[in-house]
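Anyone up for a design puzzle?
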């Protein structure tokens, strides 16, 4: 085992005022045997996070923080931390104590055994609603069917990355990012640590279902071309389907002259067909619009985050 390699602990925090002191104390306990730095990323909080960060950093020189100019989201907070971390390994952990701090030595052990990526996989999650559970289940199912990279189900942002992986991650230029997907895409030698997530210690989850749905949807768009092709598949299916149905109607109406055929007027047939096809065209347009929106935000090439303040270089 190589002695005393620096380990950066990266903690994204959005309105976690009450939790920061708690997690800081817990981390300090667990990290006694290691050479470490803690980097808190204040993702534009509007509570007393700033004061608490300043306070802790004035007492402890291993305590670093940076503050965004506004809320950019957890993915950006993690990106910023990975850009600035100096460690030979970077471990990301939620500020709300849902990720068990006691498992950190386990992550480090696997890293020392030679794994480049050690991912925390959640077995259960206390205090999670059905919608969120089902949504997350469906997300991984669908992503792994249509996505171009496989994503480990229930993998979390409780994760350790070797410096090699961090340097590779810094090369990504896309803005609509989901660190999990990108890190899975990178490959490297990986291992898993299983844990039971605790209930959030204070406050409530900032990621509500709508926000999570949007994240899931965006990452589908940026990791899969299937929705784009879907319009084409649907078109073929519906053309064949409606063609067949129309043909069957014609036979009933003019050849067999049965009850079903007589009851179905020509304009009714046309109306149904037209509505159906208009719907189809709209769906296709919608999908194309999504891709164009995605291209637009990438081309605009805005920074992923903007730093307002930081206490280290
Ligand atoms: N977080 C963040 N920016 C945000 C939302 C959340 O940095 O816009 C942080 C938050 O402070 C916490 C972690 O990301 O440390 C996980 O957030 P949360 O508990 O809200 O999500 P969940 O537990 O549902 O994944
Ligand atoms: Mg949480």
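Challenge accepted. My sequence:
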């Amino acid at each position: 085992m190589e002695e005393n390699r620096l380990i950066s602990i990266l903690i994204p925090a959005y309105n976690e005022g009450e939790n920061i002191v708690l997690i800081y104390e817990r981390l300090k306990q667990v990290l006694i045997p290691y050479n470490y730095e803690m980097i808190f990323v204040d993702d534009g909080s509007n509570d007393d996070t700033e004061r608490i960060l300043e306070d802790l950093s004035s007492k402890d020189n291993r305590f670093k923080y940076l503050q965004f100019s506004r809320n950019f989201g957890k993915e950006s907070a993690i990106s910023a931390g990975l850009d600035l971390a100096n460690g030979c390994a970077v471990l990301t952990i939620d500020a709300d104590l849902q990720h068990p701090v006691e498992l950190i030595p386990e992550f480090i052990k696997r890293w020392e055994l030679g794994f480049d990526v050690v991912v925390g996989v959640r077995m259960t999650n206390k205090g999670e609603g059905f919608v969120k559970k089902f949504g997350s289940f469906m997300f991984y199912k669908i992503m792994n069917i249509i996505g171009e990279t496989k994503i480990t189900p229930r993998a979390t942002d409780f994760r350790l990355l070797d410096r090699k992986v961090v340097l590779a991650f810094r090369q990504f230029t896309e803005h609509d990012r989901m660190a999990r997907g990108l890190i899975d895409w990178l490959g490297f030698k990986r291992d898993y640590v299983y844990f039971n997530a605790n209930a959030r210690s204070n406050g409530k989850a900032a990621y509500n279902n709508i926000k999570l749905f949007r994240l899931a949807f965006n990452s589908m768009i940026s990791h899969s071309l299937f929705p784009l092709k879907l319009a084409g598949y649907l078109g073929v299916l519906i053309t064949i389907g409606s063609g067949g149905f129309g043909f069957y109607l014609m036979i009933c109406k003019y050849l067999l002259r049965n009850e079903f055929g007589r009851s179905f007027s020509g304009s009714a047939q046309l109306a149904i067909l037209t509505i159906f096809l208009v719907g189809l065209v709209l769906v296709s347009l919608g999908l194309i619009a999504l891709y164009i929106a995605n291209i637009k935000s990438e081309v605009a090439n805005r920074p992923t985050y903007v730093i307002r303040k930081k206490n280290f270089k």
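A detail worth pointing out: Residues 226-300 form one domain.
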